[in-house]
Amino acid sequence: MAILVTGGLGYIGSHTVVELLNNNFEVVIVDDLSNTERFILKNIEEITGKRPVFYPFDLKRRELLTQVFDAHHIEGCINFAASKAVGESQLKPIDYYENNLFSLINILQEFKERGISNFIFSSSCTVYGQADKMPIDENTPLKMPESVYGKTKQMGEEILSDFAKAYQRKVSLLRYFNPIGAHPSAKLGELPIGIPNNLVPYVMQTAAGVREKLNIWGNDYPTEDGTAVRDYIYVVDLAKAHVAALQKLMQSTSEEALIDIYNLGTGKGSSVMEVVKAFELANIVEVPYQICDRREGDITIAYANADKAERELGWKSETSLEEALKTVWEWQKYLETRNTEIKL
Ligand SMILES: NC(=O)c1ccc[n+]([C@@H]2O[C@H](COP(=O)([O-])OP(=O)(O)OC[C@H]3O[C@@H](n4cnc5c(N)ncnc54)[C@H](O)[C@@H]3O)[C@@H](O)[C@H]2O)c1
User: Fold this and answer.
1) Which UniProt keywords apply (predicted)?
2) How far apart are CA 19 and CA 239, in angstroms?
3) How many domains does the chain fold into?
């Protein structure tokens, strides 16, 4: 009995694979290496002492996916595989719809045909847009996302809700807030591929001197210090939530369709400026920055109410922002020892 982890060599996927292996799950990874590197597999093995089965191919290739389902007794799936760069999704909408939705549908075809249940989907707080009130709980109305990327997440959720209802399957939609940090071993983290989309990798590269200055997009938001506020969740805590969500799905004896939705965040908002200052303090480094105009599509504030996950999954975020930011710097040092090329 194995769990298929798509995108399992990516940032959140690799941390989750470690937690699954530590909890004695058998793991089968499919990842086409489009946004990661093969050494992550070796590092997962070094951390856990176990080597998961790995297939390097694109999930859009249904015939190869069918072979994986033929070869293994797949009992559930955590589907991380997706393209995730918001800006790029605006420039390449069809590629994004194709990659994020065709991959999903191919897996669901296999699930449908083989009667498999237990599907976990990586969704995002982007489905809420700029929510009218904080904190955001799961009953907060969804808004049409501004980006194609966000739309693929909302469409993914709808496809999965229809799938669960029509075929009586169990599905968990996990809405992540802003994942940050690296594994405490410093052997897993967010790889420096392309210009970082997210704040923390940018901060890391600026502190390391790879980038001259951090651009802070707007300091005239209606927040305490004028910079935008987000909910930064440590990636290992996030990975553990997947194990809890999977265990809940697998233990559910209901014959009915089951659609679980959970916000995964810390419940605390931090401004861009707070993150920069916390990074400097935690790691005794300097992060040069400049204030720029607001960026189109950025919202002012988003932080989670994650009480439902605590109540139903027994999960809550445990790691402070400062602790998480320390792991980021250790990861950067590890990348330097490996001479990992940072693609500017
Ligand atoms: N990182 C975030 O800030 C964030 C926030 C909310 C939601 N998410 C979602 O979480 C998931 C994981 O994000 P991440 O940050 O780990 O991204 P990532 O890019 O590090 O990982 C995704 C992995 O999927 C692989 N992949 C992509 N398309 C594939 C395909 N067609 N076939 C096989 N493999 C493919 C990539 O090579 C990569 O290793 C994504 O679905 C993302 O949209 C991420």
Assistant:
1) Carbohydrate metabolism, Isomerase, NAD
2) 7
3) 1
pLDDT truncated to tens, each residue of the chain (344 aa)?
899 999 999 999 999 999 999 999 999 999 999 999 999 999 999 999 999 999 999 999 999 999 999 999 999 999 999 999 998 999 999 999 999 999 999 999 999 999 999 999 999 999 999 999 999 999 999 998 889 999 999 999 999 999 999 999 999 999 999 999 999 999 999 998 888 889 999 999 999 999 999 999 999 999 999 999 999 999 999 999 999 999 999 999 877 768 999 999 999 999 999 999 999 999 999 999 999 999 888 899 999 999 999 999 999 999 999 999 999 999 999 999 987 655 54
Could you give the C-alpha distances from 299 to 132, 223, 302, 322, in angstroms and in order?
Answer: 11, 11, 8, 24
Catalytic member of 128, 149, 221, 234: 149
CATH of the domain at 89: 3.40.50.720
Residue 215 CA to chain centroid, in angstroms? 23
Closest ligand 1 atom to 12 CA:
16
How many whole angstroms separate alpha carbon 306 and alpha carbon 240?
14
Cβ–ligand 1 contact at 36 (below 6 Å) = yes
149 a catalytic residue: yes
- Structural domain boundaries, residue 198: 2-343
Identity at 206, one-letter amino acid code = T
